Amino acid sequence: GIDWALHAGDLPLTPPQRTYLEALAAAPLRLYEVVEVEPERGLHLRDLLQPDQPVPFVHEVAATRSAEPGLILGARLLALDGRHQLGGAVYPLSRLGALEILDNLEAPPHLPADADQHAQTPATRLPAAIRDTWLIDRMLPPESRAQPVPAQTFVEDRYEVSDRATLESALAD
C-alpha cells in the first residue's frame, strides 16, 4: 500500500505525508525490548537483533502509559525530524515468542530445493515471523504464555479468533 500511495500520480500527498510514508517504507519491522520508560515522554528501545548498538530514545507518549521495561515489541522505528518514533503497527510479543523468532532466524529456512535461497534472508523472514508469533500469542490462553503481555497495551485494536483451526492451518502453510 505504501508503494502505491507514493507512486500514485493522482493522490495529492502533502510534503509531510510523503516524508512519513517514505520513512515508513524505509523502516524494517524489527524486534525491540523496552529498556526504560520515561513517563509522558517516551521509551528507550534495544534492538534485539543488534543488542550491542546504542539504545535510542523513542518519542511515544501513549506507550508510556502501559509499556514496562522488558516488554518485547515488533515495530518499525522511524527517524523523522531528528528524532525516533514508532510507525505503523506495533506488535507486543511474549518473551517466549520473541526468543522463538530469534532462534528461527538463526536456523536456515526449510525451503524446497528449487526455491530462491537469497530471497529468504533473516530480514525478509522477520516481518512474517513477528506477525505470526503475535497471532499465536493472542490465540494461546494467558496461563500458557511464558510471559503474559499486559492486557492494556498501547495497541487499541482488539482481535478475537473465531475459527482457531483455520487460523492454525493458514499459519502452518
Description:
The chain has about 170 residues and is α+β, with helices and mostly antiparallel strands. It has five helices and five strands. The protein has helices at about 1-5, 15-25, 95-105, 120-140, 165-170, and strands at about 30-40, 40-45, 55-60, 70-80, 85-95. A five-stranded antiparallel sheet has the order 3-2-1-4-5. A hairpin with a 2-residue loop joins strand 4 (about 70-80) and strand 5. Helix 3 (about 95-105) packs antiparallel against helix 4 (about 120-140). The protein is globular, with a radius of gyration of 17 Å. The two termini are about 25 Å apart.
The main sheet orders its strands as 3-2-1-4-5
Beta strand %: 15-25%
Class inferred from helices and paired strands: alpha+beta
Order of helices and strands: HHEEEEEHHH
**Oligomeric assembly:** single chain
- In total, how many beta strands? 5
Task: Describe this protein with a few key phrases.
alpha+beta, 173 residues, 33% helix, globular, five-stranded antiparallel sheet
Short recap of the structure:
Helix content is 33%, strand content 23%. The chain has 173 residues and is α+β, with helices and mostly antiparallel strands. A 5-stranded antiparallel β-sheet has the order 3-2-1-4-5.
Q: How would you summarize the topology of this molecule?
A:
Blueprint: H1 2-7, H2 15-26, E1 29-38, E2 42-47, E3 57-59, E4 72-80, E5 83-93, H3 95-106, H4 122-139, H5 164-172
